[in-house]
Design brief:
The protein is an alpha+beta fold. Helix content is about 55%, strand content about 5%. It contains 28 helices and 6 strands. The protein has a 4-stranded antiparallel beta sheet, with helices on both faces. Strands 1-2 form a two-stranded antiparallel ribbon. It is globular and about 75 Å long. The protein starts with a helix and ends with a helix.
Length: about 550
């Protein structure tokens, strides 16, 4: 393992493209990290060198004294469940991801080709993404269908996954695996372990959901499990914690499950019994073919579309037009009408429809939004809330759709009264606040004020401030400026950014408060000379972010 400044720089660009946490809406802090990538990555690397120069015990003690800012937020998981996602302070998120990229580079060469998830990117065209976009859950399932063993009449397939995988990863066992990848005397493993402990509120297990480093660490944890399956002669494929075992008979399937269970138990993990199924090869092939869209299902064309669109690509306009043209033969409204009649809508199809909104003509996009946000459909579509609101945002943020903005705004304004329960999880609320920040209405003004006053979440309060920033709400800005000393650092940074929208009032506020920034936004390790996180943020705002 070789930790380089370029790893932090690449991580900063990746954050700028993808955001800090893929379960939450894109935060403007990600743009700050991207725009100041050179300075912030240098601070990260200097910190790493300071820590890595220490003996292991001293490095651990140093990390124990540092505060790693983070917030735990509730996010839906499926139609009925919830999970905790972690919004990490932008500096520490970058630091973790820079270390994570170094770990991925060290681990990638020893990974089995049967592990399909989060393969390190080898194609420069995918930069700044960490991971190969051609490797997906879909390609994982397609790979299982190519196994010759499936053609045997007696063969069976085991589908299973690990029970609450991220929550049960034990930091000490992970630390040992990271040490195996590291040169002698490296402190990377102990740094990761201490940061994870802080993010887990002092517990010795669990990975934060939503970030890239956690994905890399999850793959490191499963690499020895993969090796044990291969050594046992089992035909297997894996995507994150989903395993597919292809066996010659029921007896071999039982043996394979036993081997996998033993291997997982060595690392404090276990299989999810409720999601473990054994299927005949024919049943499995028919099921997976239908699931991934092989056949004559009406949603096949939509499922097979790659909806990735990079607006920064040299060919971005032609790529956009090509994707837009591909929808000419797909009746999205028809597919959506099918989904709304189901007792269990297909979340993937709804997600694809959400992603497809920005490729529709304005009147079609408005009609689709009307169906997606219809009060009668909200509960059945609740598992896809984030994808739907991302799609609505992509339309509302695009001036090409200006003709239907009033219609979409009217739909959004109905949600606080019609779906207040769906706005209770912080992740859902953040997506909604981002979608309504373009225009102030009386409904939105009352809603945002009530949410800000009643929430203890820094992320939610920041999103409310961002609404006031976009609306030019001077009264709310002046109230926040006068409460500056009572605001958390994350809120203060958003207020500081918002000040640029309020003329002389904002300029006077910055002038009066500038002297407090170094102390208020200090991370606890920075030297007295040279660039700091606070000075980088102040310069970013000053230079017209």
């Amino acid at each position: 393992m070789d930790v380089k400044e370029s790893n932090f720089f690449a991580a900063a660009l990746e954050i700028g493209e993808s955001g800090e946490n893929d379960t939450l809406p894109y935060d403007i802090d990600a743009s700050f990290i991207r725009d100041k990538a050179q300075d912030i990555s240098r601070i990260c690397f200097e910190l790493f060198k300071i820590i890595d120069s220490k003996p292991i015990k001293q490095a651990a003690a140093f990390m124990n004294e540092i505060t790693v800012g983070a917030e735990r937020l509730l996010a839906p998981s499926g139609s009925h469940g919830f999970r905790i996602t972690t919004k990490i302070h932008p500096f520490w998120n970058l630091y973790l991801n820079g270390l994570g990229l170094s770990i991925a580079e060290a681990n990638e060469g020893s990974r089995s080709g049967r592990a399909h998830s989060y393969r390190l990117c080898r194609d420069v065209r995918d930069f700044p993404s960490f991971f190969d976009r051609s490797r997906s859950w879909r390609t994982y399932k397609e790979a299982t269908l190519r196994e010759e063993t499936l053609n045997n009449d007696d063969s069976v397939v085991v589908q299973t996954d690990i029970s609450s995988y991220y929550e049960h990863i034990y930091h000490h066992r992970l630390e040992n695996l990271l040490n195996d990848l590291s040169p002698e005397g490296s402190t990377v493993a102990v740094q990761i372990s201490r940061i994870l402990s802080k993010l887990s509120s002092g517990r010795s297990f669990g990975l934060p959901v939503g970030g890239q480093c956690a994905r890399i660490l999850a793959e490191v944890m499963l690499s020895p499990i993969d090796m044990s399956l291969s050594d046992a002669g089992i035909v297997w494929h894996r995507y994150v914690d989903d395993f597919t075992l292809i066996c010659d008979s029921q007896q071999d399937a039982y043996r394979a499950l036993s081997t996998l269970s033993h291997s997982l138990a060595d690392y404090g993990l276990s299989l999810n019994r409720t999601k473990t199924t054994i299927l005949s090869s024919k049943h499995y092939m028919d099921y997976i073919s239908a699931l991934i869209g092989h056949g004559e299902d009406a949603s096949t064309a939509l499922r097979e579309l790659d909806l990735h669109f990079d607006p920064y690509s040299d060919a971005s306009r032609s790529e956009y037009e090509e994707l837009k043209k591909s929808f000419e033969t797909i009746d999205i409204q028809f597919l959506l009408d099918i989904e709304k009649q189901k007792s269990q809508p297909d979340n993937f199809v709804l997600a694809q429809i959400g992603r497809a909104l920005k490729f529709q003509e304005p009147t079609v996009a408005a009609q689709l939004c009307a169906t997606l946000l219809d009060v009668a459909n909200l509960d059945s579509f609740r598992a896809s809330w984030a994808k739907i609101l991302r799609g609505v945002y992509s339309v509302r943020a695009n001036e090409d759709f200006a003709a239907v903005f009033d219609q979409i705004d009217g739909l959004l304004d109905r949600l606080p009264a019609a779906a207040s329960h769906l706005l209770m999880p912080e992740a859902n609320l953040l997506h909604y606040l981002r979608a309504i920040r373009f225009r102030r209405t009386d409904v939105r003004g009352r809603f945002v004020r009530r949410i800000y006053d009643g929430s203890s979440s820094q992320a939610v309060r920041r999103a409310c401030i961002d609404c006031w920033r976009h609306w030019g709400d001077r009264a709310s800005f002046m109230r926040l400026r006068n409460q500056w000393q009572n605001l958390g650092p994350d809120e203060q940074r958003m207020v500081w950014l918002a000040a640029g929208n309020f003329g002389d009032d904002g300029a006077h506020a910055r002038s009066q408060l500038r002297g407090t920034l170094t102390q208020e936004w200090r991370l606890g390790f920075e030297p007295n000379v040279g660039p700091t996180f606070a000075s980088c943020y102040e310069a970013w705002v000053t230079n017209g972010s």
